[in-house]
Amino acid sequence: MLFLFLLSPSKADCGDPLHFRDSIPVDGAINVSPYTHPFLSFVGDGDVSELTITLSNASGDAIPASMDGACYLHESDTEFHCNWSIVPSEPLQGSSQYTISAVKSDGSSPSGWSDISFTTNSSTTISVPDAPILEMTYFGPRNGIGVDECDWQDASSYEFLVTLSQSANKRGLIDVFDVSNTDPEYVHTLFVASNQTVVDFRQVVTPGTEEGRCYYVTYTRYSGEESAPSDTLCHDGSAYGEQTLPELPPEPAAEPTSEPTSEPTAEPTSEPTTEPTSEPTAEPTSEPNEESNPDDSNSQGPKGGTEISVESGGCGGGSALLLLPFLCLYTRSTRTKQL
After folding, report:
1. Of residues 28 and 281, which shows the higher confidence score?
2. What does the alpha-carbon distance between residue 101 and residue 92 come to, in Å, rounded to a whole number?
3. For residue 275, how far is the Cα from the chain centroid?
4. Does the N-terminal or the C-terminal CB of the chain have fewer CB atoms within 10 Å?
């Protein structure tokens, strides 16, 4: 089964200030790789300038790290997803405790936030994941699917499938980039459940901007290693495929918070729920991408390997799946983040 895995433990109302949403790792996690790049996600009406993020060791000393923060509109003019990727200047010490803090400009804590502490393991293994495979299955009106009160009511959306070559026993992240213009624009992050290899999601576009788009995705493991980008997928903005009703994601496996032994494994969940998910993909809002030619199926994508065009299947056309080549050469990309 395919799952739209967009974790949203808490959701802000229209225009509410930033509220803590989720993190990797979670508070109390153990066996965290020393190479981890912790990730924080907030939702609400705000921007990255409102928060100061700090990573410190058990002695309270700040760890030198870049705090790559970015926000994107999430299907509404009043709701942003603001994410931070914390990239330490050097790998963290093994078998050590670290704490992440977040403070607003007035010294108070953001809504829903409490400091996150985690403990590293002594692993020195680094394994870069393969580039994901991106497929487009639909473009057209949302028809009310997953539309909240604060959302754009007449927006259109793309629907995509992302396939990972290998499952992982801990959660990971998929970042989505819009490369329709000159520079890659970070437009969405998805949380991937442990042992999940196929992720479906929708990318909602701002009403009035339904012209052709180009996208690629990258995958980042829990331990911090980021894949090369997928192929860049381009579409001319015409109606394509058949809209599907997404299913709720499986419950995520809890991250271990005691008895650091070996890397825990999680049983894959097998039984999806049937209610439509409420948290869709995010609206492109910031960094546009390299100029790409939607008509050139063999051209080199701005970041994502080969550029592939999706031809129109007509309004409500039955053959919704795009067949993509299995293997390409990829160059490693650095995430422009956000998060």
Report:
1. 28
2. 17
3. 22
4. N
